[in-house]
Amino acid sequence: METHQLSPGLNVCRVLNGMWQVAGGHGYIEPKKAVSEMVKYHEAGFTSWDLADIYGPAEDFIGDFRRKLAEEKGEQELKNVQAFTKFVPEPARMSRSFVEQSIDRSRKKMGVQSIDLVQFHWWDYGNVSWLDALLFLSELRDKGMVRNVGLTNFDTAHMQDMADAGVRIASNQVQYSIIDQRPAVKMAEFCRKNNSVIYAYGTVCGGLLSEKYLNREEPSIAELDTQSLRKYKKMIDAWGGWKLFQELLAALKGVADGHGVSIANVAARYVMDRPAVAGVIIGARLGLAEHREDNARVFGLELDDEDRKKIEGATAKSRDLYASIGDCGDEYR
Ligand SMILES: NC(=O)c1ccc[n+]([C@@H]2O[C@H](COP(=O)([O-])OP(=O)(O)OC[C@H]3O[C@@H](n4cnc5c(N)ncnc54)[C@H](OP(=O)(O)O)[C@@H]3O)[C@@H](O)[C@H]2O)c1
Predict the structure, then answer these.
(1) Most Cβ neighbours (<10 Å): which of 57, 101, 135, 151?
(2) Bridge-partner residues for 18, per DSSP?
(3) CB–CB of 278/2 below 8 Å?
(4) 194-208 burial string, b = 16+ CB within 10 Å, else e?
(5) If you ran DSSP here, which 8-state letter would residue 92 be given?
(6) Alpha carbon nearest to ligand 1 atom 7, residue
(7) pLDDT score of 160
(8) Is 78 in a helix, a strand, or coil?
């Protein structure tokens, strides 16, 4: 397993397990089964989790998982778990007590003294209280309730405003895949210069970037049975459509076969190798489906210039998503 050190003593697996999939819209997740499955991820070396206060039972699952792990392997094993949550408030006036109570609720559910990383999301830049929220989160970090303050879905201009205000930001979690390479336009360079990193989601496009969809007729939105698949199918439509996507899948298959790995492995590795990317978050439908053995092959995979040339032969024909959507996170606003 490859790890990235986010802050002193906090080593994060570069393939994180994403927990949006437990929040609904991805099939029924049975809680007990899900928590048992989390132990299997941990045992396989996938020790880092990405969740949010708005992902249904995800924070409770982390609490249950930690208790189960401590029972089965002893308390000392808990130091090998990394769990990131998000703070996603309604865009309203932010007070110190509201922010502290929100983070305290997440801490209690997750069963931790200090949250490894809290990633802040803000729906409406027109409401400038986002800076207050970040200042209060920074205070909580200084008090030890939070180890790192990060963001999700913020654009480069607002990160510059934070830097100007002296707010220390550890990371920004954004959509980043072979399809959606908007973070490469400005965000990556900003992060490099400002000692911040990117956590990428959507890297395997809900599973569309896999053999399952190679040489397949274009699925209708109704045929796609998870919210994640539907989200990224729309992104593919905006990017260049199904015909070009098939061209990309064929190129990825050629690269994958050359290395004895899967299309999903190549898609994940391509993003992991990009500047400022600390890790990719791959969603897990706990207890319903798993790809641990396959995803572990990402770590041994080394792409060369020839591989990248084959991939970029297809992506060069796509539309410019930065021009049509905007910078990171603009799809949410
Ligand atoms: N900050 C945000 O706004 C935001 C937004 C979206 C996601 N996220 C985070 O990112 C995580 C990832 O979610 P996502 O929606 O971007 O999903 P994703 O990781 O692009 O897709 C996950 C799906 O891909 C399939 N998959 C995984 N590994 C595979 C492999 N090796 N071969 C073939 N298929 C494979 C699985 O489908 P099956 O289960 O059907 O097999 C899995 O459910 C979320 O859980 C969340 O933590 C954050």
Answers:
(1) 151
(2) 50, 283
(3) no
(4) eebbbbbbbbbbbbb
(5) S
(6) 201
(7) 98
(8) helix
Which regions of the chain are under pLDDT 50? Answer: none
The reply to whether ligand 1 has any atom less than 6 angstroms from the CB of 14 is no
172 pocket-lining for ligand 1 (C-beta < 6 Å): no
Residue located nearest, by CA, to atom 10 of ligand 1: 201
Q: What is the DSSP code string of 242-298?
A: HHHHHHHHHHHHHHHHHHT--HHHHHHHHHHTSTTEEEEEEE--TTT---HHHHHGG
What is the model's pLDDT at position 36? Answer: 98
Residue 272 buriedness (CB in 10 A; 0-12 / 13-18 / 19+): buried
Confidence (pLDDT) at 21: 98
pLDDT at 277: 99
Q: Which fold has domain 11-205+274-304?
A: TIM Barrel (3.20.20)
User: What is the reported pLDDT for 155?
Assistant: 98
Q: Is 72 in the pocket of ligand 1 (CB under 6 A)?
A: no
Which among 200, 224, 218 is positioned nearest to 283, based on CA atoms? 200
Q: Is the CB of 52 within 6 Å of ligand 1?
A: no
pLDDT score for 321: 98
Ligand 1 within 6 A of CB of 173 = yes
pLDDT of residue 85: 99
Task: Give the closest residue (by CA) to ligand 1 atom 28.
Answer: 291
- The domains of the chain are located at 11-205+274-304
For 140, residues 6+ apart whose C-beta sits below 8 A from its C-beta are 99, 100, 103, 118, 146
The alpha carbon of 212 and the centre of ligand 1 are apart by a number of angstroms equal to: 15
Q: How high is the pLDDT of residue 280? A: 99
Distance 165 CA to ligand 1 centre (A): 34
β-bridge mates for residue 217, sequence order: none
